[in-house]
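Reading group handout, session on sequence-to-structure problems. Before we discuss, look at one worked example. The prompt was deliberately terse, the way you'd type it at a terminal:

> structure Glucoamylase

The input record follows.
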Amino acid sequence: MRGGSRHRWFPYAVIALLLAILAAGTTSNLIRNPQPRLVSDGIPGRTATHADSALVSGKYDDLVQHALADLDGLTLPNGATLAGWNGPWRYVWPRDASFVAVARCAIGQYDEALDVLAFLNRVRPSTGRWEARYTETGGRVDDGRASQLDGSGWVLWATWFCRAGDRYWEMVRESADQIVTELAPDGLPAPSSDYWERRETELTLGTVAPLLTGLRSAVRIATDQHQPAEATRWQAALETLSAATDRVFGPDYPRTPAAATSFVEPGVEPVSIGGGADAIVTVLGPPFAPARAVVSTAIDRAHAVLTQPNGGVTPGESWRADGVSWTPQTALFALSAAARGDQATANTLLSWLDQHRTSTGALPEKVNRDLEPAGEAPLAWTAALVVLADTALQNPLPTP
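And the output record:
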């Protein structure tokens, strides 16, 4: 009887032990990743709504008008578009500024967009990679942060989208040629920092995806500007990089190259093993690139994997496991869904962003586990992405 009793209690003891281990792990994770809080809320003196409300007309009018007002506040008279108003955000990232220029052009604010591109043109590297960020006067930021190759891709896309290739041809030529120079015999560039803002020892999709968009844009610009030699050279580089990306990152397009393929069981679709899902996979599809079924599948898979319990999205599967959502990546998936015709997903994500703004109506950098805005607010990249996603819901965006 005692032996039988012991056997009956054994499973409960194991369950209790497992629950204790799980609780300890959760507690440890919460200690390592404390709940982030709001750093700042709003720009001093900015108006509550955008001056030209005729620019928006839809379900998310208030959200978009606040986003535009914040972009107005973050864009200085010299065209420098700050990522955020305060502290370490008060710099110009070529990536963020490019998205702001595109958002402006998408709603017809061409003069404002050209101001942003003019600033980028003034700070452009005549050779080499773009810096990760610049001061508001155009100086280099000496903080040990590595230069970022993806800037060449983002700037080319913005210049093409805004039809400013004639005005900024030298910036186009230098950025596109830099991408070509970076491609190794295997068709891929060397590792570079990307939007995760850290030094990388492996090539990431965060570098490759913007470069593909940039080369497509450069080819379009060169063709429009009757520059056949450049168009031919950049088209060849695009085909080389595209084939290498599919070969090394496909079919799931994880953050780092898929080193192996896991077959879970017969009849189950194989899954690539790499650096885990990354939100930047969205840049392999519309409105950054023509639609492909394999890419749409990868985007939908990444969205499912990266969605957090609070309803938003985290940048990557290997990102810190703190349950915090990041608004730029959530907005990227909203833009991707809208551009691919998935209005239900786009509306769900835009509504989530709308519901988790700060008390001033600004879009924050993050939303924490308690559904509170966190980090810097407003954030230029998120604001620009929201404008683009809302625009894509109403009218198709051009794709290079």
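Points for discussion. First: The longest helix spans residues 2-32. Second: Confidence is low (pLDDT under 50) at residues 1-7, 17-30, 260-266.
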